[in-house]
Amino acid sequence: MRFLSTLCLTLLLGASGTAAMASSKASFAKKFKNVDIHRLVSVPGMVDCSNSAYQMRQAGLATGGNAPMRIGDIPTNTASGQTYGWVVSPDASNWYFTQNITSRDSVYDGGYYTAHFHESSEITLFDNSHKQVGSFSVKVPEGWKHVTDIIPYGPITKKLFDRDEKSCEILVEFHDAFEGKNKFLTRAYDINTGKIKFEMEGTGLVFDASKGWNSYQRLIMTHETDKEYSIDVIAPPAYGQNDWTVEHTFNIAIDNRINYLQGPCFNCMNVDGTPYYVLAQYEKPFTNTDASDGTLDITQEPDNFLVLRTLDEKFKQVDSLRVSINAPEGTPYRSAAFGLFGNNDLSKGYFSNNGNLNYVVELFDYAPSLDADLISFAVYDSENGKLKDICDNVASNQWALLNTIHGKSEQMWFLQSIGTGENSGQQIQLVDVPSCEKAGVLPQSIDNNSISSNFDRYPTSANAQGYQYVIALAKAQSNEADEVLAPIAWVNPDCTIDHVDRLNLGTKAENFTPLINSTSLNPYLFNTDDDMEYVYIAKKRREDGSNKLDNVLEVAKVDGTVLKSWRGDDTHVFERASFPVMNDLGKRQMFVAFHDIENDKYDMNFYDLPFTKFEKGGKGTVEDPYLISTTGDFQQMALEPGKNYKMVADVDMAKASQWWTPVKNFTGSLDGDGHTIYNLGVKTTEDHAGLFGTLDLNGIAKNLIFVNPIVEVTNTNEYAGVLAGETNYTYDGKGEATNVDSIFVYGAKIAGEDQNFIAAGGLVGSANLGTKINNCSFQGEITLPNSENVGGIVGQTRTGSSVNACYANVNATAKTVLGGIVGIAGTPQDYCKFTNCEVRGQLTAENAVGGLVGDNYFNGISNVVSHADIVATKKSAWNGYAAGGIIGVMESDWNGASGLAKSGFVKNCVFDGSVKALQDGEEVNAPATVHQIAGKTIADEEYAAGETPYVENRLSNNYSTNDAGSTDATSVEGAYKAAKEMNKDFFAGMEYAYGSSLAEPWKEDGSKIPTLYFNNIAKAFSVSAEDVTVGTTDEGAVVVKATVYGLENPDLEDDVEVSSTPNATVSLGEAHGNSIDLIIKGKKQGSATVTVNFGEFSATINVIVLKNYVSGIESVEDAEALVIKAADGQISAEGANAIWVYSVNGKLVGKTSGAAFSTSGLTSGLYIVKATDKAGHKATAKFVIK
């Protein structure tokens, strides 16, 4: 058996012993000498300019070496230059540049070496659609004769150096280095004219704390003398001025109060759009010992502190913090840092939830036996000191944030050292944030194979935690054909292996480095089917027999099928790969760069992603729409928002590892064709949140069902809904109004605590410009306690929009302006229409809360049935409680009240719920502006003494089943009529049309009061697990939930039918509302299929049945033409196209695409193997590895 190591970091420190201790103290002091000036200042998202080649580094795969045989598809876009780099544009998109440099050669030491000093360069910039957006020339500063680096860097700015909105600027740094002396100059160039708009000696970084309409952008310039650093804050031109100004200067003495800091001494921090400046230094000198060039020993001064001073944007100190750096016993040195943790180095209540500024401080304890620092992370605030420990004994530069999982805490990993002696080791500590609770530990090895820090996490339904860790293992294997199998383990949080993907790299591979992160760990990156693909660099020997190793970049399936491959040749070296977003719609491309050695330049190649899409077909036209069958297909809508789409299968969005990115400006059509989207999860920093951010003019969404969608409202959102944040966002005077028809939502959760929200609805945030919403329903929860304009269907309607035949069963909480169907309807100039609507649930807000609408302007309302329970908790100064069974606030129509033409009406409505007002939690008796039909009306306006109040005259033929003492169907209370006295004739007399269409939307439903025609009809059906493993005893049984959506009170015990193939049994258990338990138990070891039927719906569950003990290898159930055999270290089944191996407790521990599986990576124990062929035949066998 042949083993090989990956290029990933394996978790072995190894350094220990007296030799290390002999020089360790000098080593500690030496690393603080000659600190690069670029590392003294930090800004959010800064680019590391200290590396002169930084412009050739992009987060992605590691740089490769020489790679002959350059092959690959023809790229979609190309560019080339002596250097290249990436910059952020003014709209935060990805731009890139190329640079060609003119240099001269200077010979020194009698020809011993030649130096290359730059004289000028040509810089060309391209936007995210590869359009050239700028080109200019630069020359080195006059008198600078030893320029070794000319470094363009971003972000691209506007109006930072002048008030010209049409021009863009890029920063360029010049580095002059000769005979140990360094000097820097920073300029800002107009990217088109090459005009120098800013010039100053020193290094610069742009600090951007802008949010929404609030812009805050500063250039931070650092200058160095022998005695101090001067840091200038450069501000844009003030109003009425044309030039930049130095807004403030910080002078920081160069002494041992900053010399032994492990991080920057000057930190620019963006806390949710609020800028802060944090200055770090020790309270007194770290040491009074002269370390000379760092080779001499030093003594740390006792009773010292790290001191942080925090200033606001006016440079006024607003907070400060002192953290002791006294070294623990046995530790020769403890130093400190601030600003190294990540995005939440400084936050406002992120960890403490109390509104105080929170600081993450790093303490570095020097371990002589390792000749390295071990870091402790903790959270502090100025009021309470230390709040939480995050992690300790962390190896330098070895921590990161893991992939975000819907509904789960953020999580970080830390490479943690265990001990410092000969038996020292390492592990990965997992920590939830912001709770800082320890989530688990990944040991140094799993299943006798060392793990690496090349890993991330990915969502799954295979365990209760909802995610697994995807880890590149250090040792690969080879099969009997001498093909290299590179292992990637999928590990549960309890460190049990769920399964191992073994990528077949062929016979020529030696090393293997997969890219495992939130971008690449995505089954829909390279194609749109549900199967995972991997991208990696492998060292492979040449096919020409020369035995030389090449670096090869490949994208491959789990079975080793290579989808794409890139190699260099003798003149081109593979340099780098990544997956940047390369247009305004979010389209990713695969970026692959080669170094052209002969011409000393870089070739940049861009390939469109995904490589293939829409496996089921379609052309995107009205006649032949794109056919959607996976989440990956759905993601393509964002890239062609004007096309036409049709679902041909149900889609589970939980299979995507990331939150859904709303589709912007959709003007095409989406026909769900009765199919269901499960588990949509939306959380975005965009201002519009939903499946669509904006469903624009001509846009159509119809015949679609959502089950268990989640919309997490953030403080950057303005509009939110499960379907769309907003409709008809733009208007060109030509397009057709948005049409939303037959959209049904079940089990939804929309929640957040944002205070700057504009509108949120169950389906749509804001419906504009004649939007039609017909035949739709929403069932779920909306919890937005700090927001207004919230509705069960739509948060806000404007300009002639309408809602017809819509139903909401919603438990909703808002600050104010809350309605069961619509939050706020129109403005004084808008005329919307709402008819044939039905509401259930509970609606709670401070005030302006109504069963149909919270705040209604001059709109037509008719044929509404509200069963909602209305709760108002606090008066407003203008409207009081303003709570009504149909309308909360009915805005006053002074023209209509004066006898002029009426604007809007409310008629033929029935209220069958409850309405109440609370004060300090206690119900108020007979409060003003709380009524059965309309809460606050024109009658409640303030009138002068002796003035006769107007009477609201837009109410007619409205009824309540609650006896409020009224018989007037035109009053705010409506006329009382008991529910038992209402019947079909009564409602037909009020123009309620009975039938099964939009024109006749009402039906009888076992009650005197009708319901909408699509209610109490099953719309979707699902099971909680599609693959289970069971035993043959009662202890081995599992419970799977079957759920029906659309029925209010289904009789599941009678209507659900279950069956199983012979190896398992299934029976019905307890019912829970719309769900029922299915109890599955094994009868005979092998595989089985459980079928669950409910009316026209059907679901299947694949079952693996295991016994608790077996002996030897025996065939359990041989399928036609499939026989499983075990011999010579492998399991084989002639004719099989896939083999799965399970542990005795049902965990999948390995799988392969093919007819043979190597057992070399399995430990001793009992296993079950399953094989399948292309014809669908299955076979299982049990075996023991001794």
Which short descriptors sum up this protein?
1186 residues; mainly beta; 27-stranded mixed β-sheet; 5 helices
Give the secondary structure arrangement, pairings included:
Blueprint: H1 18-30, E1 41-42, E2 77-81, E3 83-88, E4 94-108, E5 113-126, E6 132-139, E7 147-157, E8 169-178, E9 181-190, E10 196-201, E11 203-208, E12 217-224, E13 228-235, E14 245-253, E15 266-271, E16 274-282, E17 305-311, E18 317-324, E19 334-338, E20 346-348, E21 357-367, E22 372-381, E23 385-401, E24 410-418, E25 425-433, E26 438-442, E27 445-446, E28 449-459, E29 467-473, E30 477-478, E31 484-491, E32 497-504, E33 509-514, E34 533-541, E35 549-557, E36 562-566, E37 572-578, E38 589-596, E39 601-608, E40 626-628, H2 631-635, E41 644-647, E42 651-652, E43 669-671, E44 676-678, E45 681-682, E46 688-689, E47 692-695, E48 700-707, E49 710-712, E50 719-720, E51 724-727, E52 739-751, E53 759-761, E54 764-767, E55 772-791, E56 794-797, E57 802-819, E58 822-825, E59 833-845, E60 847-850, E61 853-856, E62 860-866, E63 869-872, E64 883-884, E65 887-890, H3 894-897, E66 905-907, E67 910-911, E68 914-919, E69 922-923, E70 930-931, E71 934-936, E72 955-956, E73 959-960, E74 975-976, H4 984-989, E75 1002-1003, E76 1011-1012, ...
Parallel strand pairs: 1-15, 40-41, 41-43, 42-44, 43-48, 44-48, 45-49, 46-50, 47-51, 48-52, 49-52, 50-53, 51-54, 52-55, 53-55, 54-56, 55-57, 56-58, 57-59, 57-60, 58-61, 59-62, 59-63, 60-64, 61-65, 62-66, 62-67, 63-68, 64-70, 65-71, 66-72, 67-73, 73-74, 78-84
Antiparallel strand pairs: 2-39, 3-4, 4-5, 5-6, 7-8, 8-9, 9-10, 11-12, 12-13, 13-14, 15-16, 16-17, 17-18, 19-21, 20-21, 21-22, 22-23, 23-24, 24-25, 25-26, 27-28, 28-29, 29-31, 30-31, 31-32, 33-34, 34-35, 35-36, 37-38, 38-39, 68-69, 75-76, 77-79, 79-82, 80-83, 81-82, 83-84, 85-92, 86-87, 87-90, ...
